[in-house]
């Protein structure tokens, strides 16, 4: 995504294990002490890393991320069930709490630091032709690394899931689960039929924004789009971004769902616990336990009722395949005995767009590193939880627009805009260039000449790509990273749609609302694209393939579907086909990607998945009582 603010640089470096200069020692100490005091008085204090563990639990949840934290919390509401949550990473840090520093969490020790495999068709401006794919290796998962944007998707996404053979997943059914989680603190939204207060997950706007945000909304209205709640009755339109923040800090799923229940005796959390295999009884084909490595020690835990995999769209298929559940031809090649032949790892989908579109302005109204790297700004945040550090990773506005390829109703937009009052140049190449993995040649030619100039950007994002990718094992070693082939733009329709999205973004800049700032497009052509006339469709296609921007929404690799769907891995109750007592509950079960950021939908899936488990096992218990 775009630039995150660089305010307390030394504090950040210390948190990531890098020694800062003595120049920053005083603010570092102040920041550290302030955060330490905040953490000790926080009523939702840190989760307990349990030692020792029981040998058996009713439910073992693998992955403590956006889904796993929710599932574990909700299952522990049944006091006589015991739940173990296994998480490969450690707990959140003080730095991950700061919304504006989201970009600094990527490529840190909180990040798995995955990369896609080169294809020659995308990510061409990145080092090695590979896109970075950050994933949270931390309690709270990618909800600790993301830009906190709260977007539910379009009603038709869920209705289409139901129409494709997944009863109970239509919009009217899933809406209750979005609302169940939510504690919306925006007064003009909280009391509508589409929102709720009192849930675990706090949702609100950042209390700070630039004047460019207002220009963005006004430009949208000039183009004929309403300023509306994109999570409400209609999605098409422009809106000030809503995010999962609370008291000016990030509200991850760990903070929202695990901290309030940290003292429940039936919920154990084991951090730094890397799951390596699911144990499956060969004759009954029942999952009965999990092998994991904790602090270098191999351990086994038994699940009396179910094993629940919530490791995400990359790690869930990896763990299934390591356990013998996956495409037989691939598992044979890796040397793993196939227990159940399923299309695990297929159907990979991700939102993809064009990064680097930069508009220069003449007034000091944007986020520029040199202007915001000040002690007063840091102190305002530390003591009052306000100011620029509360911005959602730099993103201030969202919009959903229709290209000429979109549904004629106008209610199912095909492009999403992320608006930020900053761009790739805004930190002089300190961080954003590295997060994106841009080559030095590209950065130095295009963005170095405008370093630290006031600017803003729109990221046009393709909402429903037709291209499909795959996840495959690299080896049978559970500590070797899997192979990621997103296959961006394998379907030419994706490029054609994105080009139209770029044209609409240019029209936003041309609106009257941006004229007071003398806003204009930065026009240095990208390396490799000089042969095309700047601004033509051919040039924009080259630019899209060069700065291929993903905001890290991989889904679909353990597809949910009916029994007659040969591509389905789990059924509509999220059981793995052909394996008893095993479910997958996370982004990987999405049959098709939702039209918007995926974090809120993943939390919804976890809420519904936990309810499905409760209904099944509590019904069985009541049934046994009736028989007796």
Describe the overall structure.
With 628 residues, the protein is an alpha+beta fold. The chain has a domain at 44-92 and 138-205 and 257-345 and 556-628: FAD/NAD(P)-binding domain, CATH 3.50.50. Strands 7, 17, 18, 19, 20, 21, 24 and 25 form an 8-stranded antiparallel beta sheet that branches. Strands 1, 2, 11, 12, 13, 14 and 26 form a 7-stranded mixed beta sheet that branches. The chain has a 3-stranded mixed beta sheet with strand order 5-6-8. Helix 7 packs across helix 19. The relative contact order is 0.18. Mean pLDDT is 92; it is low at 1-30. Belongs to the GMC oxidoreductase family. This is Glucose-methanol-choline oxidoreductase N-terminal domain-containing protein. Keywords: FAD, Flavoprotein. Residues 136-159, 312-326 form the Glucose-methanol-choline oxidoreductase N-terminal domain.
Give the SSE layout:
Elements: H1 9-15, H2 25-41, E1 56-62, H3 68-75, E2 83-86, H4 94-97, H5 102-105, E3 114-115, E4 132-133, H6 155-163, H7 171-181, E5 182-184, H8 187-190, E6 201-205, H9 211-222, E7 237-240, E8 242-243, E9 245-246, E10 249-250, H10 253-258, E11 267-270, E12 273-281, E13 286-294, E14 297-309, H11 312-322, E15 325-326, H12 328-334, E16 340-341, E17 352-354, E18 358-360, H13 369-372, H14 375-384, E19 397-401, E20 415-420, H15 432-436, H16 440-446, E21 455-462, E22 470-472, E23 483-485, H17 492-510, E24 520-521, H18 537-546, E25 548-550, E26 582-584, H19 599-627
Parallel strand pairs: 1-2, 1-14, 2-11, 5-6, 14-26, 15-16
Antiparallel strand pairs: 3-4, 6-8, 7-19, 9-10, 12-13, 13-14, 17-21, 17-25, 18-21, 18-24, 19-20, 20-21, 22-23
């Amino acid at each position: 995504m775009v630039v995150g603010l660089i305010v307390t640089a030394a504090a950040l470096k210390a948190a990531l294990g890098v020694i800062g200069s003595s120049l920053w020692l005083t603010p570092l100490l102040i920041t550290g002490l302030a955060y330490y005091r905040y953490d000790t008085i926080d009523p939702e204090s840190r989760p307990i890393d349990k030692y020792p563990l029981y040998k058996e639990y009713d439910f073992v949840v693998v992955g403590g991320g956006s889904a796993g934290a929710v599932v574990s919390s909700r299952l522990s509401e049944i006091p006589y069930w015991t739940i173990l949550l296994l998480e490969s990473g450690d707990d959140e840090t003080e730095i991950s709490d700061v919304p504006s520093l989201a970009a600094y969490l990527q490529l840190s020790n909180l990040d798995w630091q995955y990369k896609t495999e080169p294809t020659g068709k995308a990510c061409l401006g990145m080092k090695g032709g590979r896109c970075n794919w950050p994933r949270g290796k931390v309690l709270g998962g990618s909800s600790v690394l993301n830009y906190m944007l709260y977007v539910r998707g379009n009603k038709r996404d869920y209705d289409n899931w139901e129409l494709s053979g997944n009863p109970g997943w239509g919009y009217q059914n899933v809406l209750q689960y979005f609302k169940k989680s939510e504690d919306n603190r925006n007064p003009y939204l909280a009391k509508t039929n589409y929102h709720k207060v009192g849930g675990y997950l706090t949702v609100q706007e950042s209390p700070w924004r630039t004047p460019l945000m207002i220009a963005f909304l006004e430009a949208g209205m000039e183009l004929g789009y309403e300023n509306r709640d994109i999570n409400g009755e209609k999605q098409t339109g422009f809106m000030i971004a809503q995010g999962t923040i609370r008291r000016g800090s990030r509200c991850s799923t760990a903070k929202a769902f695990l901290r309030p229940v940290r003292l429940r005796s039936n919920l154990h959390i084991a951090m730094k616990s890397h799951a390596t295999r699911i144990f499956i009884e060969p004759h009954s084909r029942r999952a009965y336990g999990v092998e994991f490595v904790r602090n270098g020690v191999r351990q086994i835990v038994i699940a009396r009722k179910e094993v629940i995999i919530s490791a995400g769209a990359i790690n869930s298929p990896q763990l299934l395949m390591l356990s013998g559940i996956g495409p037989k031809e691939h598992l044979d090649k890796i040397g793993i005995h196939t227990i159940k032949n399923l299309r695990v790892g297929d159907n990979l989908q991700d939102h993809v767009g064009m990064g680097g579109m930069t508009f220069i302005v003449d007034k000091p109204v944007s986020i520029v590193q040199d202007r915001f790297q000040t002690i007063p700004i840091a102190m305002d945040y530390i003591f009052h939880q306000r100011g620029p550090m509360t911005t959602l990773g730099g993103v201030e506005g969202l919009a959903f627009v229709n290209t000429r390829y979109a549904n004629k109703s106008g209610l199912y937009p095909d492009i999403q805009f992320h608006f930020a009052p900053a761009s790739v140049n805004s930190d002089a190449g300190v961080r954003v260039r590295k997060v994106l993995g841009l080559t030095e040649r590209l950065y130095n030619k295009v963005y170095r000449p405008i370093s630290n100039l006031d600017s803003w950007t729109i990221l046009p994002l393709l909402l429903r790509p037709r291209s499909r990718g795959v996840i495959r094992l690299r080896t049978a070693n559970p500590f070797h990273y899997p192979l990621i082939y997103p296959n961006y733009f394998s379907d030419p329709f994706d490029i054609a749609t994105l080009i139209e999205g770029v044209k609409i973004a240019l029209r936003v800049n041309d609106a009257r609302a941006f004229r007071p700032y003398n806003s204009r497009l930065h026009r240095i052509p990208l390396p490799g694209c000089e042969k095309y006339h700047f601004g033509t469709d051919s040039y924009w296609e080259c630019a899209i393939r060069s700065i291929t921007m993903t905001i890290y929404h991989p889904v679909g690799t353990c597809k949910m579907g009916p029994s007659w769907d040969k591509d389905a891995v789990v059924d509509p109750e999220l059981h793995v086909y052909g394996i008893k007592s095993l479910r997958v509950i996370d982004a990987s079960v999405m049959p098709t990607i939702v039209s918007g950021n995926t974090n809120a939908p993943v939390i919804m899936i976890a809420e519904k998945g936990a309810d499905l488990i409760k209904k099944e096992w509590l019904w069985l218990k009541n049934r046994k009582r009736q028989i007796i």
